[in-house]
Amino acid sequence: MRLLVTGRSGQVAQSLAEAAGGDISVVALGRPELDITDRDSVARTIAAHRPDLVVSAGAYTAVDKAESEPEAAFAANRDGAGNVAAAAAEAGLPVIHLSTDYVFSGDAAGAYREDDPTGPQGVYGRSKLEGEAAVLAANPQAAVFRTAWVYSPFGHNFARTMLRLAAERDVLRVVADQRGTPTYAPDIAAGIFAAARLILANPGDKRLAGVFHLVAEGETDWAGFAEEILRQSALRGGPSARVERIATSDYPTPAKRPANSRLDTQKFRDTFGHVPPDWRNGASRCLDRLVGPTA
Ligand SMILES: NC(=O)C1=CN([C@@H]2O[C@H](COP(=O)(O)OP(=O)(O)OC[C@H]3O[C@@H](n4cnc5c(N)ncnc54)[C@H](O)[C@@H]3O)[C@@H](O)[C@H]2O)C=CC1
């Protein structure tokens, strides 16, 4: 199968490109040749590369900056997402679109299911929620995968930030009152490949369209994630530091984050027959790459 992926230098796009091989080919494209805010450039790119399926992973992901740049966030996350889904639909192609736990308020007690009420807390979450609606309206073969707390060997992410800070400081202050599931981008890529295979084998199957939650198994809080990264780093001879657990109120940010980011993945597992690994397993593989293998 041949996948065209938007947002070439992003964590998920790079993970998809890296995992391609065998009967899977991935063409990952980004600006300047593919700008999702430019409908014509999306249509031209799809026509030129003739993929079987489009993965929409390009997005405006600067959560705090979005509060002061709402136009840019909505241009990419709502209008750009809609452009990609519509251009795929015009070519008769299914689309897998990435969305986020930030569409929820975080006030619920348990893990969020796909049909639970949304309630984004900031501009980024609102722009992604409106993007979901645009995608589902534009393409009858659209699957929206909400994921969360993405990290990888690439780009800006929490795991890399913790390692960098641990090399500079003895104590890292990390919020301990936001719960969720760290999800290793290569594990998202594996879930996307499994789903894409099924979607392409069952064209028009309505059960494979709609919203799904795709995160790793298990849960923790940001401080717990930091502790695990630093524990695994120390095992490999990498930087380590003590984690001081703090409250969100001690670390003010422009955008409010959900206190509960947990996503229920039952629907994804039942529909696509794919079970993502535990988050600690992903952390271990990421640390193998960022620090090196354990002795
Ligand atoms: N990073 C995270 O923790 C989470 C990410 N997500 C979603 O998952 C998806 C993938 O996320 P990541 O790979 O982490 O993001 P990322 O920030 O690593 O990559 C996004 C890519 O999109 C590109 N992009 C932005 N505007 C564009 C435009 N107009 N045209 C073409 N490309 C453009 C950026 O240059 C970047 O390479 C996104 O939809 C994001 O909203 C969901 C939950 C959490």
UniProtKB/TrEMBL annotation:
Keywords: Oxidoreductase
EC annotation from Swiss-Prot or TrEMBL: 1.1.1.133
Protein name from the UniProt record: dTDP-4-dehydrorhamnose reductase
Organism of this sequence: Antarcticirhabdus aurantiaca
